[in-house]
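Quick log. Single chain, no ligands specified.
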Amino acid sequence: MKRVWNRIKNSKILAGLRYARYVIFHPFDGFWDLTHANEGSLGAANVIIFLTLAVRLVRLRFTGFMFLDIYWPEVSVWTETLTILVPLLLFCISNWAITTLFDGKGTFKHIYMGVGYALTPYPIIQLIMVILSNLVTSDEGVFYSVLNGLSLGWCAFLIIIALMMIHVYSLGRTILSTLASILGMLIIMLICLGFFSMLSEAIAFVGSLIREIQIRVY
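-> predicted structure:
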């Protein structure tokens, strides 16, 4: 048992999770070392993203009704999961594609890890918010709103710093590439929607053609 615990304690994922604490309070040095000095780990980034998804579901289920009135039986776990995973992956793909054209230094793996680590404050603060929402009154709800804004704002700030350090960009160039990445996400979504729309129409046409042949033959 002791050997198992020592292996877990010394694992790269656990070390990467400990490093996340350093990253969120020292983002410039943290994100630079994350990608240029091989600190952190891809496994730890995956764990942070998983915790983000898990805490979002916990928030939807257990937040006090005064702050979030949701009928849980109507909530789709898969839909809620995809609403975070799909935009995250699309953003990473779009940012990688755009920065590759404009001398960005980061790989897709670096971008994914950076964004994953930048989400660290979200599960921590949102979990505090869930507990707080069941303890405070509506008049004290300002604390809930402040924490919500802090969790989102902190993550957004960390993502900007992460991309700046990963690609070795200036702040202005990072903001422009981030806005371009968001636009790229929308373009990718439109292309995918168009493709699936054409595919569904093609399948429907083939199905109707087969039915027509069957009617004429039989």
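The first helix runs from residue 2 to 9.
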